[in-house]
Design a protein that fits this description.
The protein has 222 residues and is of the alpha/beta class. The protein is 33% helix and 30% strand. It binds adenosine-5'-triphosphate and 1-O-pyrophosphono-5-O-phosphono-alpha-D-ribofuranose. Belongs to the ATP phosphoribosyltransferase family. Short subfamily.
Length: 222
């Protein structure tokens, strides 16, 4: 019997928007997915050809890029940070909108001009995108990798700058920081393993089309 398709979804904030979209696409996890006491990491679904895994956002891309999962939903920030050759991102799902930005303490933001600097220390979860962005300005970025709460770094002397996601700007404001440059816009994407798209084409192609239609319908309704 053919192995079930594995659909990877992230644990964090994308999950709340991803679940209704999955339901519209005809995919419903089994009841234990919603049971907080259940420690399973792999779940069945209403489709007997599909299981779901719930993993950290960065790990969704890793599972799919290596073919351990066939399809998934993840932010474009994660896709761009890894830049995996085997990862195909055919559909912008039109939710999870935010941006990846540079920020620094409010009192320094006006005075600092990157064009005068040759080197900066940056706290971020996105070292590859950060180095690439600063290199495009002719500045060498030394990255301190954090997994959250980047906004604490400048006030505690860990780094002058941060590169992090910004949506409303409240987190920056409440931590005395100011956004000084936008690196890229971010939204949630459907991702598919390129090899799986060939070997499991009959199952994956209609799913991609279904998600594309749902994303288009969402855009039209907005
Ligand atoms: N403020 C935000 N507004 C909109 N989308 C966001 C925001 N923050 C994060 N995202 C999107 O949600 C994804 C997951 O973010 P989330 O904060 O849930 O993960 P996390 O808690 O940092 O990750 P981890 O699972 O590694 O702990 C991000 O990769 C991004 O695409
Ligand atoms: O501009 P805002 O609307 O304030 O949103 C931005 C915040 O949202 C994300 O963090 P999240 O809440 O996911 O927590 P995290 O630090 O655990 O990633 C991001 O890392 C920022 O800290």
């Amino acid at each position: 019997m053919t192995q079930p398709l594995i659909f990877a979804i992230p644990k964090g904030r994308i999950l709340d928007d991803a679940l209704p979209l999955l339901a519209q696409a005809g995919i419903e996890p089994t009841a234990n997915f919603f049971d907080k006491a259940d420690r399973s990491l792999r779940f069945g679904s209403n489709r007997n050809d599909m299981d779901l895994i719930r993993v950290r956002a960065f790990d969704v891309a890793t599972f799919v890029a290596h073919g351990a999962a066939h399809i998934g939903i993840v932010g474009s920030d994660v896709i761009d940070e890894f830049d995996y050759a085997d990862l195909y991102a055919p559909v912008d799902l039109n939710f999870g909108h935010c941006r990846l930005s540079v920020a620094e303490p409010k009192e320094r933001a006006q005075a600092d001009t990157l064009s005068h600097m040759s080197h900066v220390r940056v706290a971020t979860k996105y070292p590859n995108l950060t180095r690439r962005y600063f290199a495009s300005l002719g500045v060498q970025a030394e990255c301190v990798k954090l997994n959250g709460a980047m906004e604490l770094a400048p006030s505690l002397g860990l780094a002058h700058h941060i590169v992090d996601l910004v949506e409303s700007g409240r987190t920056l404001k409440q931590n005395g920081l100011e956004e000084t440059a936008e690196i890229m816009p971010v939204s949630a994407r459907l991702i598919v393993n390129r090899t799986a798209l060939k070997t499991r084409h009959a199952a994956l192609a209609p799913l991609i089309e279904r998600f594309r239609d749902l994303a288009e319908a969402g855009k039209a309704a907005a």
